[in-house]
Amino acid sequence: MNFVSIRMITDDVARLVAFYEAVTTVPAKWSTPDFAEIVTQSCTLAVAATRTVALFGSDSARPAANRSVITEFRVTDVDAEYRRLTSLDCEFVQTPTTMPWGNRSLLLRDPDGNLINFFTPVTPDAVQRQER
Predict the structure, then answer these.
(1) 20 vs 28: CA distance, rounded Å
(2) If I label 63, which of 8, 27, 48, 57 is the partner at 20 to 30 A Cα–Cα?
(3) Is the Cβ–Cβ distance between 63 and 50 less than 8 Å?
(4) Which domains does the chain carry?
(5) pLDDT tens across 9-68, in order?
(6) CA dihedral over 130, 108, 96, 77, signed as positive or negative
(7) From residue 6, how far is each of 44, 56, 60 by CA, in Å?
């Protein structure tokens, strides 16, 4: 089994996709006006319109209601990303901080309030964990 993507449901696909294109610098691949994907080397972030929820069962997902999942992106230099992102008027939850498990981490929210972690492994143990 391979973990290949996560999907976010939103009331404003264009706004959320534009945000993720800006923060990841990856252009979206649009399938329809209701569905786009940010495809990275390791995983895909899919963004879908609220009206697509009916395809899975009514009320199976709600936009802008996540308070338990953090979408994480490993980056080369989290401090450089922080400097770049400050020009995008992002809502920062935590500025770059070295965490007890060895990652330097930056937390921000997307326009729907979903939490995003940009991180860089900085200790030998953290680097080794990422090489697996």
Answers:
(1) 8
(2) 27
(3) yes
(4) 1-51 (3.30.720.120), 66-132 (3.10.180.10)
(5) 999 999 999 999 999 999 999 999 999 999 999 999 999 999 888 777 777 777 788 878
(6) positive
(7) 7, 15, 15
